[in-house]
Amino acid sequence: METEDRIAYEAASLAAVEGELPPGKRMMDFLEGDTYDGIGRRIEELILKTDHFIVFLDEFGSVQWGGAFGDVDADSYDQVSNRVAELEIRSFFLRHGKMSRRMGSVSRWIGSFRKSTDQETTRLGRESEKSLFAARRLIAEGMARLLSTNSLPAATGILDTAEKWISQRSIEYSRRWLLVPFGLLSATCLVAFFILMARWGSPPEPASPQMWLLGALLGGVGALVSYVSFNRQIPFDATAGRFLHNLEALLRWFVGVVSGFTVQLLI
């Protein structure tokens, strides 16, 4: 009886698959670069394909799957598909590392003076794309495990690994988005401090506008020192986006500048 039920299921699955595809085309015929007819997305990276279903990443790095998988436990499918959607959202920050069109144009303009190639100027964009597809590949493997083995623990194990990888990249990107602008602003303050000291030749008189200016510049440097000293106690999460990270760096630097100016003003 079980054999007859299995044969009936196989026949029904193939019929459902054929309903999604053009006449004469099978799931196993799809290759990377093809357009999957079920949803009209290009297959950028093929994760798994069988006679009944296919799992792949499209041109945008989104996890896609289609076909017939009626023998998969419904509750397990709901859990895994919800987890896949959650991890896709959590990994969206990896797209933000890609250079914007305007920044790419600026980099190419600067690179023309250094005789650099387009490959060098778009390196950051390629690295970000690689990270995005690496995360999405792990996520897609979780769905592929469920559809191929009907094993929730196997799928959950892969998705747990994907979540840990995304969390590590989130901390890395968050620190980079904070420290790079923060460091540039503080370095500017430090350079300006030494330039002014060299120009004046000697320390200015206390309670003078020159001393207030130096205090503000050193306050900007002190803000970075304070941040680096206590950054282990600061939560990092790149899902907030690059803009908010850069804004936080600017505000922390500004608070340091105002604090340094205020201290010198009150002395």
Report on the architecture of this protein:
The chain has 267 residues and is mainly α. It has two domains: 2-168, no CATH class; 171-266, no CATH class. 66% of the residues lie in helices and 7% in strands. The chain contains eight helices and five strands, in the order αβββββααααααα. It has helices spanning 2-20, 74-90, 101-114, 118-121, 123-149, 152-200, 209-229, 242-266; strands at residues 35-36, 41-42, 45-49, 53-57, 63-67. The strands form two sheets. A three-stranded antiparallel beta sheet has the order 3-4-5. A two-stranded antiparallel ribbon has the order 1-2. Strand 1 and strand 2 form a beta hairpin. Helix 6 (152-200) runs antiparallel to helix 7 (209-229), helix 6 runs parallel beside helix 8 (242-266) and helix 7 (209-229) packs across helix 8 (242-266). The radius of gyration is 27 Å and the shape is elongated. It starts with a helix and ends with a helix. Mean pLDDT is 79; it is low at 1-19 and 98-124.
Compact summary:
With 267 residues, this protein is mainly alpha-helical. It has helices at residues 2-20, 74-90, 101-114, 118-121, 123-149, 152-200, 209-229, 242-266, and strands spanning 35-36, 41-42, 45-49, 53-57, 63-67.
Topology, pairings included?
Layout: H1 2-20, E1 35-36, E2 41-42, E3 45-49, E4 53-57, E5 63-67, H2 74-90, H3 101-114, H4 118-121, H5 123-149, H6 152-200, H7 209-229, H8 242-266
Helix pairs in contact: 2-5, 2-6, 5-6, 6-7, 6-8, 7-8
